[in-house]
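Predict structure. Chain length: 340.
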Amino acid sequence: MFWRTVIHPVALALLLCGFVGPAWAGLEICNDTDVPQDVAVGYKQDGRWVSEGWWTLEPTACVTAIQEDLQYRFYYFHAKGKGQKFRHDRLSFCTQQALFTIGGDNDCEARGYAKTYFAKIDTGLGSKEHRQYLSTHSGPSVAETGFEPGTWGSPFSGAALFHECSQMFRGGVQFCNLVGAGRVFTVVEDNRTPAEVFKTLRRMRKGTPVQIQGDWVGLYDLSVELVLRSAQERAPSDADRVLQQLQGDWRSESDRNDQFTILGGGRQNVYAGTPTSQEYLSVMPFCGEHEGHEAYLYTWDNQGGTGLCYEIKAVSKNVLELVYLPRGTELRYRRLELSQ
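Prediction complete.
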């Protein structure tokens, strides 16, 4: 097997002074964890997806994976290190154990490659260069830490919407769900999360914008188990305001049997008066490989099924226009109480 090993000759200086200021262009990835990590990247080149790896980064080492001015806002990466858990965004690229550059992100297994989930890198609008640190998605595995309950896992902080608190199907254990950035965050009342945090959550209305801090302790498809240290209401973002406009009951203009209700971070689909699938949803500036428009709607089944992407073309008091991706099918809905 072959890897590109990157060891900085000034490692001691970096340890004492931190990572130096940028003398690079493009996409630089730096290992700010305590263990060596193997890194791969995914990006679009001439309209085609490409994945490339592996670079072996010692602690404090960096590699310029894209060595020219960035052309896109979003890039993707995967990292693996001994005793480390990688938090991916369920975006798959093809990889292999040895050194690779692979064109295309489909049919990986059929072509003799492995299908590997990557995390998204948001470089910002118009950025020509960006530095990504591995600790944003890599941290000690739960089994490796030996920490006391409530302190284990990878530290996490981020924005979400409060969805609901309920009882687990078996055992009657209380849990609360929050939704954000295409994931469901589940917090279980099992003495790891302080009781005061649960009290705060129970007082919230469905759809309340929340800033959360805690530890990432489990990953199950599109859901994450968190141990929370704090949950505080925050000012709504642009995405929150768009989602607020989507709240309510909607009916398809092309098929009157097709209806759905959006409440908080969830959607209940109904056909001919019969409830069908329940989904979670997020409004984001991207959806999978799709980007470039103001807002996208990402929905996924509450059992962790495949997600769907829509461009939000227009939303007003009584009309919602979506474009189903990647087919480009235009969908038009009217608010139910105005369409009787």
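Summary: The two ends are 66 Å apart (CA to CA).
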